[in-house]
Amino acid sequence: MSLDYDLISFESLLTEEERLLQKSVRSFVDATIKPNIAGWYEDAVFPLEIVPEMAKLGLLGMHLKGYGCAGRSAVEYGLAGAELEAGDSGLRTFVSVQGSLAMSAIYKHGSEEQKKEWLPQMAAGEAIGCFGLTEPTAGSDPSSMKTFARRDGDDWVINGAKRWIGLASVAKVAVIWAQTDDGVRGFVVPTDTPGFTATPIEPKLSMRASIQCDIELTDVRLPADALLPNAKGLRGPFECLNEARYGIIWGSMGAARDAWQVAVDYSKERLQFDKPLAGYQLTQEKLVNMALEINKGFLLALHLGRLKDAGQLQPHQISVGKLNNCREAIEIARECRSILGGNGITLDYSPLRHANNLESVRTYEGTDEVHTLVLGNKITGIPAFR
């Protein structure tokens, strides 16, 4: 496949180490994911067998240091996310849920004992984690969560429900956020704890090669040391969500790039009125406009990644990237499907699969509306969320 989307020598802005990491993940995606993703998507299967391979590449918790984690930079994490999502959003989401949400929660807010128990297992792919924040009636407004953890002697007892929780049915450990008499707190919950039930949400039109679940928590009893000691209030989960949102900035552009490459290759081969589609002005205009947005999207991602590595990235800047790149990526995937015509609705080609997946990516970790309001508040100084 051509890589002609890079009209500005983007890869010249990367270090040799960054390019090597990008190449290794791209090779993994080309060899392992792309030949199989149509079947996994059609059958709604998350391929657990590739988790050990991802672990060997150092992709699980790759931006964390110590505890068996790779200690890679934010830019390297982003580049890996873009390559993974060029394969499929659902498989990039696995790396995000595992590393940016579940592992980051323990890494940022856990005790040393919690870190030593769980992070090495999770980095090695021996334990899958999930992150329970969203509820059936608390999506964009997590402060309205109803899940509650009460003290009972030295123990905690949790009751409530979570929804759209990635990987919960295959997870060994869950980070569950709950209201308490002392505000929102996080808990490390082994999923074999009595009263914890995870049920995959089916059927789905998006993210079919991934797992999202409903969780029921019925008198889930935990010891005192299950509490994440360093997270109090919504700042705890929000810090993890910002890690995941950052990855989406890169990942969404990976999906857009793959859709675009498929459309370019198809348009060069597909003959209509005795010449290839790529030879028509309307098609070239579409390809050019999309390539411009992909280049701008990757430049934005790289700039934000450099800021993150320098410790200077601000939350509203993450909203800039998430809002812009998801919005552009889904339009690109849809436009690419139009170039493929009727053939584009089959799983022989990736653009419509990417577009369907991006409906979820655009929704989770903050909708367009929420990120718009974040930026509106930044610009005007007036919060308009209510």
Write the layout of secondary structure elements.
Blueprint: H1 16-33, H2 37-43, H3 51-56, E1 65-66, E2 69-70, H4 74-87, H5 89-109, H6 112-123, E3 129-132, E4 148-152, E5 155-166, E6 173-180, E7 183-190, E8 196-200, E9 212-222, E10 227-232, H7 235-269, E11 271-272, E12 275-276, H8 281-309, H9 315-340, H10 351-363, H11 368-380
Parallel strand pairs: 3-6
Antiparallel strand pairs: 1-2, 4-5, 5-9, 6-7, 7-10, 8-9, 11-12
Describe the structure.
- The protein is an alpha+beta fold.
- It folds into three domains: 10-123, Acyl-CoA dehydrogenase/oxidase, N-terminal domain (Butyryl-Coa Dehydrogenase, subunit A, domain 1, Orthogonal Bundle); 129-232, Butyryl-CoA Dehydrogenase, subunit A, domain 2, CATH 2.40.110.10; 236-380, Butyryl-CoA Dehydrogenase, subunit A, domain 3 (Up-down Bundle).
- Helix content is 50%, strand content 17%.
- It is built from eleven helices and twelve strands.
- Strands 3-6-7-10 form a four-stranded mixed sheet.
- Helix 5 (89-109) runs antiparallel to helix 6 (112-123), helix 7 packs antiparallel against helix 10 and helix 9 (315-340) runs antiparallel to helix 10 (351-363).
- The N and C termini lie far apart (48 Å).
- 50% of the residues are buried.
